[in-house]
Each structure stands twice: as C-alpha cells, then as structure tokens.
Amino acid sequence: MAEPHVRVSNLHKSFGALEVLKGVDIEINAGEVVVVFGRSGSGKSTFLRCINFLEEPTVGTIEVAGISIGAGSPTRHRRKQIQSVRKTCGMVFQQFNLFPHMSVLDNVMEAPRRISSDSATAVKDHAMSLLADVGLADKAAEYPIRLSGGQQQRVAIARALAMKPQVMLFDEPTSALDPELIHEVLSVMRSLANDHSTTMIVVTHEMGFAREVASRMCFFHEGVILEQGTPEQMFDGSRLPETQRFLNAVM
C-alpha cells in the first residue's frame, strides 16, 4: 500500500497551561478529502495549523509527503524541513489575507515568482490558468477591494494552488462570507476534490458539503478525534451521543 500523504502521531499542543490538543493520531491518503468538524474550542484549527507548523507542536510528529518532523528545538535542519512542508501544503484561511496593494494576478503570482524556478512567462500562464479554474480570469487586473468576499476567497484558493501543493488545508473558508456567497467557494472546493483528486483537510461547519464531498469525517471533541468515519457512518450511524448532538444542532 502507498504511504499516507499526511500522518499525524500523538499530537499535543498547549498554550501555557491550556492543553488544546491531547493526543491526535490520523493518517490521510492521497486524494482523500477529510472534513474536520466540532464545537468551537475543540482544537480543529490548531490541528490544521500544526500540520504546516504555523503552530509549533508541543509533543508529537507530523509527516507530510514523506517529510517527517517531530516537536523540538528550531535547528537549521528542522527549519529547512518546515519550509519544505509549507511548500507542500497550500492553506486557505477564514480571512482572505490578500495583498491589497497588488492586483489579483500579482497576488496569485507572488509566491512562485519569489520561490519557483519557473520562468516569468510560465508563472504568469499558470496563475492565469488557476484564475480561470476558479472563474476569475476576467478579474486578473482588479484589486481585492473591488471583489466580493466570495471572489476574494476564490483568489485565495488560486494563490494557495499556485505553489502546486500536494495537500490543501482549509480553515473554515466560508465562515467570513455572506450566505449567498458561500456556494461560490464550495463549488471551487468540490471541483478540486472531484475533478482534480486533490488531497484536502477541511475544517468546516458546512455539513452539506461534507456529506457530498468528504471521504472521511473527523469529529473533534476536547482536543481529540472522538469519532471518525465516512459521511454515511457519521450522519446515519454515529455511535456517540456527543457526535449526534452536534450534528443535530448544525443540521
């Protein structure tokens, strides 16, 4: 069998005396779409941020695309490993975090222009192709302030894809959007999952998306994965009352 694309082993994360993650273990295979859900404060976003080391694990090991990094001191070798993991993982946040002084095209081109060995023409062509994929090729010359929230988040997805990541991380990507704009972003995410077989870890409360697209769902509760399974198992046959109560509330 192929090695998992992402492997998290015994992950703990504390902020001072507050232990947010209390021993998370999960393996995610290439092409899987894993939806992470649970109450606020259950550790979902912290888990996601630990995968690409935006948060430093207190204990445990993260492995992404064969790069394995344990919790530890910031040695030169370890910093290089973390940089490699971040190149492998694209991340989309709740807030769009676009550069307001740059055009849409320049936002998408910025990281590969600085880091990639591709020619300027190749970088631009790839960026335009990504903007076409998210339905925004006609907005390439616009600035973020002139876009709707849904359009800005779609640009943020294109920007994350510009580095050709092997894994995409989504941290509640629709939570800052008005309800009528949510479908724009979910449509792009469905395409990534269904048409491109992108490995995705998605923190979201969008249970309709989870039921339709997820390979697996993981219910976080008080810093651990309390229950996981296919959407059918979680929606129709959840074994635990905590999971059932949460799903009943959000549905």
Mind explaining what this structure looks like?
There is one protein chain. The longest helix is centred in the last third of the chain and has 16 residues, at 179-194. Helix 5 runs parallel beside helix 6. The protein has a single domain, classed as Rossmann fold (3-Layer(aba) Sandwich). It has 251 residues and is of the alpha/beta class. The two termini are 36 Å apart. A hairpin with a 2-residue loop joins strand 1 (6-15) and strand 2. The chain has 9 helices and 10 strands.
Task: Sum this structure up briefly.
The protein is an alpha/beta fold. It has helices at 44-51, 76-88, 104-115, 120-133, 149-161, 179-194, 207-213, 231-237, 241-250; strands at residues 6-15, 18-28, 33-38, 59-64, 67-70, 89-92, 167-171, 199-203, 216-221, 224-229. The strands form 2 sheets. The protein has a 6-stranded mixed β-sheet with strand order 6-7-8-3-9-10, sandwiched between helices.
What are the key terms here?
single chain, 251 residues, alpha/beta, Rossmann fold, six-stranded mixed beta sheet, four-stranded antiparallel beta sheet, 9 helices
Instruction: Tell me the Rg in angstroms.
Output: 18 Å
State the helicity in percent bands: 25-40%
Shape: globular
Tell me the number of strands: 10
Q: What string, H for helix and E for strand, traces the elements in order?
A: EEEHEEHEHHHEHEHEEHH
Compute the number of structural domains: 1
Q: What does the largest sheet look like?
A: 6 strands, mixed
